[in-house]
Design a protein that fits this description.
Number of domains: 1
Order of helices and strands: EEEHHHH
Radius of gyration: 14 Å
Distance between the termini: 47 Å
Structural class: alpha+beta
Largest sheet: 3 strands, antiparallel
Number of helices: 4
Number of strands: 3
Helix content: 40-55%
Strand content: 15-25%
Strand order of the largest sheet: 1-2-3
Shape: elongated
């Protein structure tokens, strides 16, 4: 799909993406997180992308593999003081 632009609506928690063929796609961000984010770090990565670049978020969901993206960018840190 050729994505033109997207914006995030905080009230509905949806991304509205306009395609180059003038169609509109809605993305339920809760469903994306449930399907791909396994922990709070991965949810945080998705939220960061969503708030800062909704067009990239929509492109990731529509054209790529969000799970593979999350595995590549998420950094886990073990807090030694908690052990």
């Amino acid at each position: 799909m050729n994505l033109y632009i997207a914006f995030y609506d905080m009230d509905t928690n949806y991304v509205y993406a306009w395609m180059t063929d003038r169609s509109i796609v809605t993305i339920d961000c809760d469903k994306v997180e449930e399907a791909f984010a396994d922990n709070m770090y991965e949810r945080s990565e998705l939220d960061d992308l969503l708030f800062n670049d909704p067009t990239a978020y929509a492109d990731l969901v529509l054209n790529d593999d969000p799970g593979r993206y999350l595995k590549a960018v998420t950094q886990y840190r073990i807090d030694e003081t908690m052990m």
